[in-house]
């Protein structure tokens, strides 16, 4: 298997907590996630006690995650275009208001299964709108060498909450009722708002000249579709998330079939969270010994063990084996999240994170619905059995679809060493489209290597703004080649040259120009009616 980056952090997995701002925001996220898991358990158990079918119960996950399909990409644009701190504050406030309204309806005995799904969907919207911003601020809070550790701790906020929230919710549901659980979730969002108000974040660059929303969305999509390292991360996340969603969607039904109450169900979920926290300690050691691809393989198999337990085994054994699934869950998410953050350049980090959330949460949302329908038709044990087979296939697929070499290690620092073109007129920012022609002369001995180098340069042009890229050879002159690419406007071209090109892009350009016998000649063409 290909040895992929990211590998082996040399810092403590808890090192980021030594940074005050990271620590405060980390605890705020942990509290909010505990509240969210309490809300999830309360919602699912409310439906269990209402004698809802498997499909309706699984729809809690679908209602929570479907907004990621609808809003993740626009949320990524917002996060790259607006002040991320303010976006997080307003999003957390909206979540607090929605959670408070849910609490009031529940306390007044006005909650129905349909209304519960509506509130869950609305909370999913606010979560989808803020998720890219939460991911994008992580590299701001810690130095680069601690990003992998910060990603692992980010997993703790989710999975530690998964250990605490369900167990706490189970006890509270038995002792007080659903409205108290929902009310504590509302308070957790208020705590997050207070932490964000405390954070004195430096001014976010690029906000003085933001890209138009539609152009920013297109630029983000172009980047993701042209970045083969990112595409492979997204593929691995979808392959795992779809079968993995079955356990989260069907576990409340499994708990009911075991004869467990709300506290027992909370204990099952809590064991997953405990395993995830254990994984935080184990994973850094594992990444020093083996590649990320091996971790993804083993994680898929370990997760399948927990699914088998939920389908067939008694409560005591299931609790233990679900902890292994928790280790596997955090192993997969930490590898994929840190690979994503270390591979994305700063200018498109939120949009790239949004694409990841779209794929992962979208696969979870669709999977939850599919597994609920399957369980309704053929039974929960059979549905979970199918999931086990798929997880084994996911593990085997790493041989053919691994994370690619260079993931997490390529140079993503912005490179400003790019020539400024000399034009006979000064274009306006919206003038365009602009077509750039670059002429090369290459000796016969370098033609094969030059063509290979131009393939990578073409991907670089597309990632950073080119809507169209073409490569030609001359029919009259041996060794003469022409590169042509088009950007939507002069401002888009300037962004490409000053904000988006990284050290890796410079390497691609230098590799191509080094094979030419003389410096390439670059010319810029505009529509003929500009400045006439």
Key structural traits:
single chain; 16 helices; disordered N terminus; mainly alpha; Alpha-Beta Plaits; 532 residues; elongated
Describe the protein:
With 532 residues, this protein is mainly alpha-helical. The chain has two domains: 374 residues, MFS general substrate transporter like domains (Growth Hormone, Chain: A, Up-down Bundle), CATH 1.20.1250.20; 92 residues, Alpha-Beta Plaits. It is 70% helix and 5% strand. It contains 16 helices and four strands. Strands 2-3-1-4 form a four-stranded antiparallel beta sheet. A hairpin with a 6-residue loop joins β2 and β3. It is elongated. The termini are far apart. The N terminus is likely disordered.
């Amino acid at each position: 298997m290909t040895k992929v980056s990211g590998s082996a952090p040399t810092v403590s997995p808890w090192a980021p907590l030594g940074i005050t701002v990271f620590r405060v925001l980390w605890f705020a996220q942990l509290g909010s996630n505990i509240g969210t898991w309490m809300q999830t358990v309360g919602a699912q158990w409310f439906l269990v006690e209402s004698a809802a079918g498997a499909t309706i119960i699984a729809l809690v996950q679908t209602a929570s995650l479907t907004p990621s399909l609808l809003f993740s990409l626009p949320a990524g644009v917002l996060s790259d275009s607006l002040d991320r701190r303010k976006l997080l504050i307003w999003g957390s406030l909206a979540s607090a208001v929605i959670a408070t309204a849910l609490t009031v309806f529940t306390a007044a005995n006005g909650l129905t299964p349909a209304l519960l799904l509506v509130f869950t969907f609305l909370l999913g919207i606010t979560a989808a709108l803020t998720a890219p911003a939460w991911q994008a601020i992580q590299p701001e809070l810690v130095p680069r060498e601690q990003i992998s550790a910060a990603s692992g701790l980010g997993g703790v906020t989710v999975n530690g909450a998964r250990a605490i929230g369900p167990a706490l919710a189970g006890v509270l549901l038995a002792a007080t009722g659903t409205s108290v659980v929902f009310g504590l979730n509302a308070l957790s969002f208020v705590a997050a708002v207070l932490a964000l108000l405390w954070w004195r974040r430096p001014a976010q660059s690029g906000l003085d000249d933001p890209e138009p929303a539609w152009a920013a969305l297109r630029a983000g999509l172009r980047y993701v579709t042209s970045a083969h390292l990112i595409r492979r991360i997204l593929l691995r996340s979808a392959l795992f998330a779809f079968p993995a969603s079955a356990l989260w969607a069907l576990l409340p039904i499994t708990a009911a079939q075991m004869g467990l109450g709300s506290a027992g169900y909370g204990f099952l979920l809590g064991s997953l969270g405990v395993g995830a926290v254990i994984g935080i300690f184990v994973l850094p050691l594992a990444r020093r010994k083996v590649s990320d691809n091996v971790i993804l393989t083993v994680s898929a198999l370990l997760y399948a063990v927990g699914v088998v337990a939920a389908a067939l085994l008694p409560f005591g054994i299931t609790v233990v084996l679900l902890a292994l699934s928790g280790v596997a869950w955090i192993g997969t998410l930490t590898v994929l999240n840190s690979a994503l953050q270390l591979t994305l350049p700063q200018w498109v980090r939120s949009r790239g994170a949004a694409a990841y959330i779209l794929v992962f949460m979208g696969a979870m949302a669709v999977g939850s619905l599919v597994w609920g329908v399957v369980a309704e038709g053929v039974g929960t044990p059979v549905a979970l059995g199918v999931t086990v087979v798929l997880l084994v296939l996911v593990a085997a697929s790493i041989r053919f679809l691994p994370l690619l070499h260079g993931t997490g290690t390529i140079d993503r620092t912005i490179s400003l060493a790019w020539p400024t073109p000399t034009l006979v007129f000064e274009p306006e920012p919206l003038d365009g489209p602009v077509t750039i022609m670059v002429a090369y002369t290459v000796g016969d001995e370098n033609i094969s290597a030059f063509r290979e180098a131009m393939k990578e340069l073409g991907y670089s042009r597309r990632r950073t703004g080119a809507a169209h890229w073409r490569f030609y050879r001359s029919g009259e002159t041996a060794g003469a080649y022409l590169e042509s690419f088009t950007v939507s406007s002069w401002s888009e071209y300037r962004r490409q040259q000053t904000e988006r090109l990284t050290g890796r892009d410079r390497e691609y350009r230098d590799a191509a120009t080094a094979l030419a016998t003389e410096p390439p000649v670059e010319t810029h063409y505009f529509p003929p009616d500009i400045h006439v």
